[in-house]
């Protein structure tokens, strides 16, 4: 596991409120989240991330966001209420 000493993505955004974020950085962060969710859902049994939010995007470096993973497994599907 990699040490993410850069704080969270929220910390970085709050420290740079007036900065226009480069589009490649935004797409890269979004792609990491989508790929993680796709990988978790493709497993057998499928895994779910129970706390997917911007606060769980940790910064390994100032340009490399990582997703903090809190996952659970299920052996069936439930119908939403």
TrEMBL record:
Give me the Gene Ontology terms describing cellular component: cytoplasm
Please indicate if the UniProt record lists Phosphoprotein as a keyword. Answer: no
- UniProtKB keywords: ATP-binding, Kinase, Nucleotide-binding, Serine/threonine-protein kinase, Transferase
Enzyme Commission identifier(s): 2.7.11.1
Q: Name one GO molecular function term.
A: ATP binding
Q: Which PROSITE patterns match?
A: PROTEIN_KINASE_DOM, PROTEIN_KINASE_ST
Tree of life domain: Eukaryota
Protein kinase domain residues are 1-81
| Reactions mediated catalytically | L-threonyl-[protein] + ATP = O-phospho-L-threonyl-[protein] + ADP + H(+); L-seryl-[protein] + ATP = O-phospho-L-seryl-[protein] + ADP + H(+)
Can you name this protein? non-specific serine/threonine protein kinase
Taxonomic lineage: Eukaryota, Metamonada, Carpediemonas-like organisms, Kipferlia
């Amino acid at each position: 596991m990699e040490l993410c000493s850069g704080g969270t993505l929220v910390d970085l955004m709050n420290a740079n409120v007036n900065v226009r974020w480069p589009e490649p950085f935004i797409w890269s962060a979004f792609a990491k989240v989508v790929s993680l969710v796709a990988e978790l859902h493709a497993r057998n049994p499928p895994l779910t991330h129970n706390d997917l939010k911007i606060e769980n995007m940790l910064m390994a470096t100032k340009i490399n966001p990582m997703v903090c993973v809190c996952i659970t497994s299920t052996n069936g599907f439930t119908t939403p209420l």
